[in-house]
Amino acid sequence: xxxxxxxxxxxxxxxxxxxxxxxxxxxxxxxxxxxxxxxxxxxxxxxxxxxxxxxxxxxxxxxxxxxxxxxxxxxxxxxxxxxxxxxxxxxxxxxxxxxxxxxxxxxxxxxxxxxxxxxxxxxxxxxxxxxxxxxxxxxxxxxxxxxxxxxxxxxxxxxxxxxxxxxxxxxx
Length: 172
Ligand code: UDP
Ligand code: MG
Fold this sequence. Notes:
Blueprint: E1 9-16, H1 18-22, H2 26-34, E2 39-46, H3 50-56, H4 66-73, E3 82-90, H5 92-100, H6 113-117, E4 119-120, E5 126-127, E6 130-132, H7 136-146
Antiparallel strand pairs: 1-3, 1-6, 2-3, 4-5
């Protein structure tokens, strides 16, 4: 009898946070993540508004660092830009978290992204250069928050057809 090894193909959201962008770490971070042999299925630069920031971090609403965290991800201390990426592949969530390292940059392995490039500010915010989804439920919620289905190179979650009529800027 042969044992069946089932692939656990997952998607996960990675954000290169404003400090990562200001420190010109985009290349280093993507290079390090490429060691995982995962595939990028979505990528875009985002100017984060309050609504997106608060929805993304809604589970941390009661934490004392919440307001500072919202300011940080909105770019108040660095630049109002975030690079949002969706990685796909076997055990993507855990593998990216491993490369990312502990939330606290001082506790993170020195070879992890946060251990290498993160810092704690004097006001106590962990400026840890990257975000990575921490569970399947979080990954699904976060990918659906940051990306529309058509912005990914493949359909990864169920979609539905909806008539959308709204004004938007187009090139003159
Ligand atoms: N954070 C912080 N102080 C803390 C815990 C978290 O400044 O004591 C910030 C940090 O930027 C972290 C983010 O809040 O990445 C989200 O926290 P979470 O506990 O979800 O950690 P993560 O999933 O990012 O490792
Ligand atoms: Mg988290």
